[in-house]
Each structure stands twice: as structure tokens, then as C-alpha cells.
């Protein structure tokens, strides 16, 4: 080699370090099996699914029963009174295909890396499939044009047309995180304000009663584990929160999360940090009647990664809510969204936009450059 050429291992190391700096921080939640050692591992209730990568029909593997329970929780499988087995049967294959269709993944029926990665992402506790009907999966025309991917709960429940003003109260529960009261109230006020800006609805906070009750239309509270509504929480980075369709008004958040209510969540000390306002905006959408959206950029998309802020309504969200309640004549439209985190906005944003694919592509490019330089 000439004096102006670098050894292969130096070029590879330089390129890899540079790309790691660009891609960092990357959550192992969004990495497929085998690449999790690139970044610090973030444990969550579904981390063990990583061990099921590439499992397919006909196989028997420990952990499949737990994955079936996950799919049943979000509506993809019916609950079985006798429990689930570790057999990859036809029902599981069809459930995985339905899941892949909803999240716009390759429909293989196999637990490929992209599917497992999506299943491991922190998410909303509201089901994607309700009463056997999946409203997330778009029609072919919707998929192509990326419009009207929003959904409603079965029966299209909404608040009465006569109700333009709704009240909400923040419950004082033993599990409420140590967040300054004024900061907490401001977060929820901003979250409600994002929906009122686009609709004819207004929201007003009222005080939580000292007796532990409220006449508010909407009640918000932090709870841990089984808290009496049939939807138990499961610890950090599993189901982050859930809310009920109109006109129930209950909105519950998992007290076990590392909630961030102020400052830049992308710079939070904990890798497990979750932006409270981002989750609140999503759950308020459920309170108003919206189901989950198949559009990764929408607020109503089911998953969000840690240390990510996502609070601006997308066009899909606006179309969905205005179809229910009408539009605010002063609404100025959807502003361009710029991610405020070096992480991807959602773990399901598509394989091409995931940090781990960028990293792999960069290493591959580095190999090509090194070979050319030889």
C-alpha cells in the first residue's frame, strides 16, 4: 500500500466510532436481537421477547405463552381460561400477521427482528383490536396516501354535542410522583390545550375533593400495579398509561415510570425517562373518542420510546378529532414537527428510520470505503 492509504482496521474503527456518536443514544428497546449489546439495555416487562426472534409456526419454545398473553392483552388473541401454551400454533401465526399489518411491518407471521422490536416498545395500555375488530389496519388506498389512518372506539362514542366545556381533576393518590404541583398542573393544561386548539371543546381544571372523589368529567391519577379497573400496570417501560372511551372519563398513569414533567426529556439522567406531556396528549385522545392510529407520526400511534418528546398533533390526529367534534375556526393548522430527541420519535416508525438500521448501514459503508482504499 502507498503511504497515503490507511490500514483497513483503522478506517473501520474510525467510521464505526463516528457513526456511534451520531446514532447515540440508541435504546435497546428499538434494536433487534443480536444488536442489543451496542447500547445499554433498557429492561421492560417484554424484554424476554428478544429470545423468541425468528420463531415460527410449528415450533415449541419457552416464552411463547407469555407472548400470547401480550397479544391477548392488546386484542390480537382471545383470552383463554385455561391459559396459553408455548406452542407456535395457527392462531398465534394469524395474530402476528394482524399485529404486523397494524404496525405496517412485513406480514410474515414470523417473529422476525422488526416485529419483536416493535412488541418490546413501551406503549399505551388501550387495545389495538377491540371486540375482534382492528381499526388500526389501513385500507390499501389509505396506506398509499397516508391519510385517514385514525380510528374510533366501537360504536364511535363521543361526548354529547351539547357539551362544549369539559372539566378535569388531578387525583391526589399515594402513588403520585414527587413532581411540583404547579408543574404537574401545567403539563396537563398544555396537553388538553393541544386538543382544544383544534376543536370546539374547552377544558377546565377543577379541584380534587379532599374526600377522594370528584364531580369532574375527567379524572387523572397515578397508580401502581393492580388498581381496580381490570387493567393492571406492569412496571417501567411496559404499559405507560391507559384511558377509557367517552364518557367514562378515567385516565390512569403508571406510577412506576420515570416521569419527566419539565426540561428536555432527551437530556434526562435516566435512560428510562418518559415525557409526561407526550403520554398525556395521547391518552386525552382516547378520552375524547379516538382509538389508535396506524400512522407512526400521529399522536395516537400506540408506542413511544423513552427520552422522547412527541406532543404536536399530526394531520391524522386533527382529521380524526375534527370529524367527531368539528374544527376550531381559529386553528392555524398542523405545524411541521421537528423531533426533540436524538432517538426516533416512535419505535415503529419504519425499519428505514430506526437508529439500529442507520448504524448497520454505516458500518457496511465503512467496510466499502475501507476496501476501496486498499
Automatic annotation (TrEMBL):
Alphabetical UniProt keywords: Calcium, Glycoprotein, Hydrolase, Metal-binding, Metalloprotease, Protease, Signal, Zinc, Zymogen
Binding site for Ca(2+) 2: 217
CDD domains, alphabetized: ZnMc_MMP (cd04278)
Signal peptide: 1-23
Residues reported to bind Ca(2+) 3: 234-235, 254, 257
Residues engaged in binding Zn(2+) 1: 227, 229, 242, 252
Pfam families on file: Peptidase_M10 (PF00413), PG_binding_1 (PF01471)
Cofactor: Ca(2+); Zn(2+)
Superkingdom: Eukaryota
Every Peptidase metallopeptidase domain range: 155-327
Record InterPro entries: M10A_MMP (IPR033739), MetalloPept_cat_dom_sf (IPR024079), Pept_M10_metallopeptidase (IPR001818), Pept_M10A (IPR021190), Peptidase_Metallo (IPR006026), Peptidoglycan-bd-like (IPR002477), PGBD-like_sf (IPR036365)
Family indicated by similarity: Belongs to the peptidase M10A family. Matrix metalloproteinases (MMPs) subfamily.
Protein's name according to its UniProt entry: Peptidase metallopeptidase domain-containing protein
Organism: Eleusine coracana subsp. coracana
Phylogenetic placement of the source organism: Eukaryota, Viridiplantae, Streptophyta, Embryophyta, Tracheophyta
Gene for this chain: ga17597
Amino acid at each position: 500500500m502507498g503511504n497515503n492509504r490507511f490500514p483497513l482496521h483503522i478506517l473501520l474503527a474510525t467510521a464505526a466510532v463516528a457513526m456511534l456518536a451520531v446514532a447515540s443514544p440508541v435504546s435497546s428497546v428499538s434494536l433487534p436481537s443480536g444488536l442489543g449489546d451496542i447500547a445499554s439495555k433498557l429492561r421492560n416487562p417484554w424484554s424476554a421477547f428478544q429470545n423468541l426472534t425468528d420463531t415460527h409456526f410449528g415450533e415449541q419454545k419457552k416464552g411463547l405463552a407469555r407472548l400470547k398473553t401480550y397479544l391477548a392483552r392488546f386484542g390480537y388473541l382471545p383470552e383463554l381460561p385455561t391459559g396459553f401454551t408455548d406452542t407456535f400454533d395457527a392462531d398465534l401465526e394469524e395474530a402476528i400477521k394482524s399485529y404486523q399489518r397494524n404496525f405496517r411491518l412485513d406480514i410474515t407471521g414470523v417473529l422476525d427482528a422488526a416485529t419483536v422490536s416493535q412488541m418490546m416498545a413501551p406503549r399505551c395500555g388501550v387495545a389495538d383490536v377491540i371486540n375482534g375488530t382492528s381499526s388500526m389496519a389501513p385500507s390499501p388506498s389509505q396506506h398509499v396516501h397516508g391519510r385517514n389512518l385514525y380510528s374510533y372506539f366501537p360504536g364511535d362514542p363521543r361526548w354529547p354535542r351539547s357539551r362544549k366545556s369539559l372539566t378535569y381533576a388531578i387525583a391526589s393518590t399515594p402513588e403520585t410522583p414527587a413532581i411540583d404541583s404547579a408543574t404537574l398542573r401545567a403539563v396537563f393544561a398544555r396537553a388538553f390545550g393541544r386538543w382544544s386548539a383544534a376543536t370546539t371543546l374547552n377544558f377546565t381544571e377543577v379541584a380534587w375533593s379532599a374526600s377522594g372523589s370528584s364531580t369532574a368529567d375527567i379524572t387523572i391519577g397515578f397508580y401502581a400495579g393492580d388498581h381496580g379497573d381490570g387493567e393492571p400496570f406492569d412496571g417501567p417501560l411496559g404499559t405507560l398509561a391507559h384511558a377509557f372511551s367517552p364518557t367514562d372519563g378515567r385516565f390512569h398513569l403508571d406510577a412506576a415510570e420515570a416521569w419527566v414533567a419539565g426540561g428536555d426529556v432527551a437530556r434526562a439522567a435516566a435512560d428510562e425517562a418518559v415525557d409526561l406531556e407526550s403520554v398525556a396528549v395521547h391518552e386525552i385522545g382516547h378520552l375524547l373518542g379516538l382509538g389508535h392510529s396506524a400512522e407512526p407520526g400521529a399522536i395516537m400511534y400506540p408506542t413511544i420510546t423513552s427520552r422522547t418528546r412527541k406532543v404536536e398533533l399530526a394531520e391524522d390526529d386533527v382529521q380524526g378529532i375534527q370529524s367527531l367534534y368539528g374544527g376550531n375556526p381559529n386553528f392555524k393548522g398542523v405545524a411541521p414537527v421537528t423531533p426533540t430527541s436524538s432517538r426516533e420519535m416512535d419505535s415503529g416508525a419504519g425499519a428505514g428510520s430506526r437508529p439500529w438500521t442507520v448504524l448497520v448501514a454505516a458500518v457496511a459503508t465503512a467496510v466499502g470505503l475501507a476496501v476501496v482504499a486498499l
